[in-house]
Design goal:
The protein is of the alpha/beta class. It has one domain (2-228): NAD(P)-binding Rossmann-like Domain (Rossmann fold), CATH 3.40.50.720. Helix content is 40%, strand content 16%. The strands form 2 sheets. It has a 7-stranded parallel β-sheet with strand order 3-2-1-4-5-6-9, sandwiched between helices. Helix 1 packs across helix 7, helix 3 packs parallel to helix 4 (104-128) and helix 4 runs parallel beside helix 6 (156-176). The longest helix has 25 residues, at 104-128. The chain starts with a strand and ends in a 22-residue tail after the last strand. Belongs to the short-chain dehydrogenases/reductases (SDR) family. InterPro entries: Fungal_SecMetab_SDRs, NAD(P)-bd_dom_sf, SDR_fam. GO terms for molecular function: oxidoreductase activity. This is Short chain oxidoreductase.
Length: 250
């Protein structure tokens, strides 16, 4: 039985992560801590469907006080068993061109500093857990090597911060390797999370299924790696994105 904490669970990828986790038998997923800045009706519905197992925890990843309070709440529930898996999913993206970029600091605080503070705060509980996994939700558009492919994607602050998140993942992977941790980042693909992404490659369910498969099955062999989900039939897609389950270039 494993316990999971997911940030940014009120919508999009985060909500689908906690929904799919809750659908797993309790023998595999014991407790889901669904965290977000505010609780909405879909989260409340899931909590009602899985009482005592699906726990709503307020967290603003830019607010250290809210994170510290969340640690106390989670610790009161898991006790000496600790927390098994932390999934840093909360993130923001602003659309525009480099010449107009004015949101870099705010985006950095959510996409990079937020996961850093989360790891720092929850590390004592993760050390007590049996799985010791930290998963950072990244994006292939954060790959420096692939920027010739994604040059026309107008999201400079998102690209910059995801590249920084990737580096931070490597640093934590190196720092915690001797303690048996597995720290990696994964790109869930271009997903149809809302109307603005209605023309994206994959459904959010497909992308999240790929992510959770990696979380469950990956061991220390993927520590410090930048992974791509695997979607059968998309391995050699002629478009921007291929989903082959392999490592993405930095």
């Amino acid at each position: 039985m494993a316990s999971y904490l997911v940030t940014g669970s009120s919508r999009g990828i985060g909500h689908e992560l906690v929904r799919q986790l809750a659908a797993q038998p309790a023998s595999e997923v014991s407790t889901i801590f669904a965290t977000s800045r505010s609780v909405n009706a879909p989260l409340q519905e899931l909590a009602g469907q899985h009482p005592g197992r699906f726990i709503l925890v307020p967290i603003d990843v830019t607010d250290r006080d809210s994170i510290n309070k969340a640690v106390e709440r989670v610790e009161s529930i898991v006790g000496d068993k600790g927390l098994d898996v932390l999934i840093n999913n909360a993130g923001v993206v602003e659309w525009g061109w480099l010449k107009d970029m004015s949101d870099l600091n705010d985006t950095f605080n959510v996409n990079v500093t937020g996961p850093h503070i989360m790891v720092q705060a929850f590390l004592p509980l993760l050390r007590k857990g049996s799985m010791k996994k930290i998963v950072n939700i990244s994006s292939s558009v954060g790959s420096i090597a692939k920027q010739p492919v994604y040059r026309q994607v107008p999201a400079p602050s998102y690209k910059i911060t995801k590249a920084a998140l990737n580096m931070m993942t490597v640093l934590y992977a190196q720092e915690l390797a001797d303690e048996g941790f597995t720290v990696f980042c994964v790109s869930p693909g271009w997903l149809r999370t809302n109307d603005a992404n209605a023309h994206a490659d994959l459904s959010v369910g497909t992308g999240v299924e790929g992510v959770l498969g990696m979380v469950r099955n990956a061991g220390v062999e993927v520590n410090g790696k930048f992974l791509n989900i695997h979607v059968p039939g998309w391995e050699n897609n002629p478009g921007f994105n291929q989903y082959d389950g392999k490592e993405l270039p930095w």
